[in-house]
Amino acid sequence: MMKLLTDIEPEAKVTVKKIEGGSEVKRQLQDLGISEGIELIMLAQTPSHEHSGAISVKIGDREVALGHGVAEKIYMDKGGVMLSLLELEQGDKGVVRALGGGKDFVGWLSELGINEGTEVEFLGHKPDSTLIFRVEDKEIKMGEGQASKVLAQYEGSPIQINYLKEGEKANVIRLIGGTSVKERLEEMGLKEGAEITLIRKEAAAPTPVRGKYVRAQLGDQLITIGYGTAQKVWVE
């Protein structure tokens, strides 16, 4: 008998039988390695961090911004307890023990200096801001979390574009994320080589508090699935 993934008890092993929703949902799940016929082990349903806004972490002497969707897929050892990065509080430090975003996730994070064994310090939440950029000949708007997925070359070094200052220009060198993320960014004109200028930052409405998410094991990888997406996955 089929059940929704969100109705499965922890430690149960299941097989994905049907995925509902449109092509966007299926692309998001494919980025995690999930398709019909795949076996998963359900681990837990976990409430997301109550705070809002993209988070800022320190890796060595470098500050890195991460959206919630990325941070909740990074599993940390904090004093012998395994937590997602999103569950840490300001000033907490931990060591990365597992990355749960699918086969390409490790490569994307490596470009930001995040690998298994890396020590990460949680600095806090970035202010809720809307960033207005000029890309080639048009203006675009995005939040801190989305901007953190765009790497650009600035004065000879790679930088996440949300760390540009007003008036500074850079050239896009990489988009960090799965197929659906890259498609959205490319539709905005953010393609490799494009020149981008930060025009200004504006205060944004507070980010809604996120709900729950689902942790599961796929082979030897830990993965994290948003609760709404998990409700579209039927398993047996």
Describe this structure in words.
- The protein has 236 residues and is α+β, with helices and mostly antiparallel strands.
- The chain has 3 domains: 3-46 and 211-235, SH3 type barrels (Roll); 55-125, no CATH class; 129-203, no CATH class.
- It contains 6 helices and 18 strands.
- The protein has helices at residues 23-31, 68-71, 105-110, 144-147, 179-187, 227-230, and strands spanning 3-4, 13-19, 39-47, 55-59, 62-66, 74-78, 81-84, 93-99, 119-125, 129-135, 138-143, 150-154, 157-160, 169-175, 195-203, 212-218, 221-226, 233-235.
- Strands 1-18-2-3-16-17 form a 6-stranded antiparallel β-sheet.
- The longest helix has 9 residues, at 23-31.
- The protein is globular and about 60 Å long.
- The mean pLDDT is 85.
Q: Could you outline the blueprint of secondary structure elements for this entry?
A:
Blueprint: E1 3-4, E2 13-19, H1 23-31, E3 39-47, E4 55-59, E5 62-66, H2 68-71, E6 74-78, E7 81-84, E8 93-99, H3 105-110, E9 119-125, E10 129-135, E11 138-143, H4 144-147, E12 150-154, E13 157-160, E14 169-175, H5 179-187, E15 195-203, E16 212-218, E17 221-226, H6 227-230, E18 233-235
Antiparallel strand pairs: 1-18, 2-3, 2-18, 3-16, 4-5, 4-9, 6-7, 6-8, 8-9, 10-11, 10-15, 12-13, 12-14, 14-15, 16-17
